[in-house]
Amino acid sequence: MKRFVSIWFYELVTDWFSLHEPFLRAIPFATTIKDHGRLIITAINEAARKQGITTGMVLADARVIFPTLETRDDIPELPDKLLQKLAEWCIRFTPAVAIDPPQGLIFDASGCSHLWGGDEAYLTDIIKRLNQRGYHVRVGMADTMGAAWAIARYGKGHPVMLPDEHHQALLSYPPAALRIDTGMMERLYKLGLHHISQLMGMPRPALRRRLGQSFLQKLDQAFGYEEEYIDPVIPVAPYQERLPCFEPVSNRAGIEIALQQLLELLCNRLVKEGKGIRTAILKCYRIDNQVQQIAISTGRPSTHVQHLFKIFELRIQDIAPGLGIELFVLEAPRVEEVNPLQMAAWKTAAGLHHPELSELLDRITGKFEAAVIRRYVPDEHYWPERSFKPATSLDEEPATPWVAHKPRPVWLLPYPEPVQVTAPVPDYPPMNFRYKGKLHTIAKADGPERIEQEWWLQQGQHRDYYIVEDMEGCRYWIFRLGPYDADKTYGWFIHGFFA
Asked: Given this model, what pLDDT does residue 341 score?
């Protein structure tokens, strides 16, 4: 016999925000979206509902009811992403889980509940686990999807309809429990039809003529007269390889042999799919139920087994085999597409696109840490300390070219540091300056180069930069802040050192 479970996440969006900001759970809270110059409430929590706030209300009107209403910007694509993740997580309850937008899931639970000891224990465990994850839910179980949906949203008693009970139980439900749209619900209420029982005695041709064939289909599906199927979520198969051991492995040589085999299996699979490893984790399950694991990452997607093995090899010493390891699992939680044509071009290219350079950087970061290697790209700012930013990867292309037509120091201070300067007026370079207690007499100087600040960021004084060389042959990059004024000076600063 078919059995279906409907789960209604009636505070799906606000629950997600509350998980990231727990204090929102205890206060009236809503999400809003801009619409024709107004902020419209799209979701609310229970505390806001008790204050009389509803979805679709203008935020200004809601603030009249409750002035301290907390709000966050709505994320339109968030419900779909949450339901997808929740559906994949719920596969532990049944192999057939489908998304029921905008706030629900549907299970085909046929033959599943007996594993939990019955329907009630099954639903109790579902509710308990979802509540522990931070989501408020209502559930219903019945012989049809439509009946289960109705219980979850309009049921007032027991959430489980016994087999064949839905024919009688649905008669007392409102027409809205048939999963019809708002316009059709309003039409039914205008006709004085407030319960499904009032519809069952009416001729079907009259219902079809007034309400359409889609209404009759929803009615038949709820009562089981028409079969309804779900489109189950199929999770993406994880990139994982497993290697059980006949005898527990307790030495480094055995770990290396297992790792080599797992890498070959996983890389062969990825090559066929045109993908490469960016992050990999080796998990070692010991016979005492302890799990040891090590992880690596690469600058570019890679399927080079020996290269990946060398990176792992640096961390094998961190594995404590204890009394022995009985299972090895290699996972690749992050993989990326690999372009074969591009890889062919790298064989003759130099610079950052050379594969051997990428592998060298992977080994360096694997041995020390990712923070020891940094790459920067130019940023669209004039002031030197803001004219660059960290690159996200070796493949990131600069949006703007580097400033190459003017000399820049090889070592730029994070922030300019003040110096004491003796300089003639009005715009001559300094004759000497004192930095960290040491006096530097200037032998040569070049400048000034004026650098303004962006007007759209903030108003401020310009900088006049000079390249100066002291009597010892050391060169510095110093600047005067603002125009020269005999009555008011804005100070001198050192900002970098040349080679």
From this structure: 47
Q: What are the C-alpha distances in Å from 166 to residues 69, 148, 226, 374? A: 41, 9, 14, 65
Q: What is the predicted pLDDT for the residue at 346?
A: 46
**Rounded Cα gap, residues 451 and 464, in angstroms:** 7
360, pLDDT greater than 80: no
70-73 and 29-35 strand pairing: parallel
- Summarised one tens digit per residue, pLDDT across range 13-47 is 999 999 999 999 999 999 999 998 899 999 999 99
197-202: long-range pairs with CB below 8 Å, 24+: 197/171, 197/172, 199/175, 200/171
* Mean pLDDT in residue range 448-459: 75
In eight-state DSSP terms, residue 21 is S
Residue 350 CB: number of other CB atoms within 10 A?
8
Where do the domains of the chain lie, and which CATH numbers do they carry?
A: 9-76 (3.40.1170.60), 153-223 (no CATH), 240-338 (3.30.1490.100), 411-497 (no CATH)
Residue 386 CA, chain-centre distance (Å), reads: 27
Whether omega for the bond prior to residue 414 falls within 30 degrees of 0, making it cis, is no
- Is 120 exposed, middle or buried (CB count within 10 Å of its CB: 0-12, 13-18, 19+)? middle
To the nearest whole number, what is the mean pLDDT of the chain? 88
What residues have CB less than 8 Å from 303, skipping those under 6 apart?
267, 270, 271, 275, 276, 277, 338
Q: What is the pTM of this model?
A: 0.59
Question: What is the phi-psi region of residue 179: left when phi exceeds 0, alpha when psi lies from -120 to 50, beta otherwise?
Answer: left
The Cα–Cα gap between 379 and 399 comes to: 8
Question: What's the CA gap between 308 and 295, in Å, rounded?
Answer: 11
- Cα separation, 115 vs 123, in Å, equals 12
pLDDT-derived band at 178, boundaries 50, 70, 90: very high
| SS3 category, 255 | helix
pLDDT, residue 401, reads 79
Nearest to 288, CA basis, from 316, 252, 320, 322: 322
Give residues with Cβ within 8 angstroms of 194, minimum separation 6. Answer: 174, 175, 188
**Which residue, chain included where needed, has tokens 């203008």?**
58
The more confidently predicted of residues 433 and 356 is: 433
Peptide bond into 429 cis (omega under 30): no
